[in-house]
Design goal:
InterPro entries: HotDog_dom_sf, MaoC-like_dom, MCH/BMMD. This is MaoC domain protein dehydratase. This protein is of the alpha+beta class. The protein has a single domain, classed as Thiol Ester Dehydrase, Chain A (Roll), CATH 3.10.129.10. Helix content is 21%, strand content 31%. The chain is built from four helices and seven strands. Strands 1, 2, 3, 4, 5, 6 and 7 form a seven-stranded mixed sheet that branches. The radius of gyration is 18 Å and the shape is elongated. It starts with 9 loop residues before the first strand and ends in an 11-residue tail after the last strand.
Amino acid sequence: MKPTHASTTAHSSPNAQSVYLDDLTVGDRFQSGEHAMDEAQIKAFAAQFDPQPFHLDDSAARSTLFGGLAASGWHTAAITMRLQVTTGLPIAGGIIGAGGELSWPRPTRATDVLHVVSEVVQIQPSRSRPDRGMVTVRSETRNQHGDVRQLCTVRIVVPRKPAADGTGAA
């Protein structure tokens, strides 16, 4: 879908063009493509980056608060980022974070098929740098049943459209 200024517009970016600060409106929504999880991915990520028993061994995980094998929250965050970059948030110049909050209300499981739904909640043009602004985006990483696995609210730097003469913001 092509971005529009309507706050009820849902965007999906496999065919979307890059969007600039000037294209966004509070309430704009974006949905990513999907990523299917499996046990091998969970264990491989955990072995390299978060080697805790509940991420590595289903038997050991059963006696924990997870009640079974669970993906590392950082694995869910990494998948979320990939989905946002490749199919979720078509921000001109890329997704450049400037801070935020992250939580995992429920664990990601090997049977989950994840996608990300994001909404623009605040837009603030920069006073000191007219070529950009800050956009606050709230994202939910959900599984195939719509269950939220990760909540993330981030501030990202978004460029303004270049002026026709190429000298800065339009």
